[in-house]
Design a protein that fits this description.
26% of the residues lie in helices and 18% in strands. The protein is an alpha/beta fold and 176 residues long. A seven-stranded mixed sheet has the order 4-3-2-1-5-6-7. Mean pLDDT is 88; it is low at 1-9.
């Protein structure tokens, strides 16, 4: 990265946990049965209904989805991330993610962080510290390591995703 990109900023995300299980595929938050023809607000109101009835109605903007393994598998549908952004999801934490979903999330400025999510419950309050690479549950005295995100990904997230990053840094070059 070029020197003018600040990768020293402290990145902290705090919010309530909204829990989902293992193998939550992108069709569960952005079902193909609604595309095309329905707007994002309608689709967001149906998100995760098949795995957690009433999830979208319970979800509060600024919340953090905490899931089991393989979150976002099954599809390259970028609209799945758009729906999560429309819902106000601050971040997603899971032990593993589908590769295409992970990339789409980063490109759209949605933090996706890998971590052991056992014993994290719906309604817990958590703090994600990207500088310290930790997830903490202050009310339960639990701290866990987050998989470190490379500086380039952190820079994309700070700017809100790939397109805003490239608009701000049009001369950015990948260095070997």
């Amino acid at each position: 990265m070029t020197d003018h990109i600040n990768d020293k900023a402290q990145d902290r995300i705090a919010g309530a946990v909204f829990r989902l299980g293992d193998d939550v595929n992108t069709d569960l938050n952005c079902s193909g049965k609604y595309l095309p023809g329905k707007d994002e607000a309608f689709i967001a109101a149906q998100a995760f209904e098949a795995v957690s009835p009433g999830f979208a109605a319970r979800f509060s903007a600024g919340g953090v989805i905490v899931a089991g393994t393989h979150f976002g598998i099954n599809s390259s549908r970028e609209q799945a991330v758009h729906i999560l952004r429309r819902m106000g999801v601050a971040a997603i934490v899971a032990p593993s993610f589908g590769r295409q979903f992970f990339r789409n999330a980063i490109n759209n400025g949605l933090p996706v962080l890998e971590c052991d999510t056992t014993a994290i419950a719906d309604g817990d309050l958590l703090t994600l510290d990207l500088d310290a690479h930790t997830l903490s549950l202050p009310g339960r005295d639990i701290t866990r390591p987050l998989r470190t995100l490379p500086a380039a990904i952190r820079a994309l997230l700070r700017e809100g995703g790939l397109i805003p990053f490239l608009r701000k840094y049009p001369d950015w070059e990948v260095t070997a």
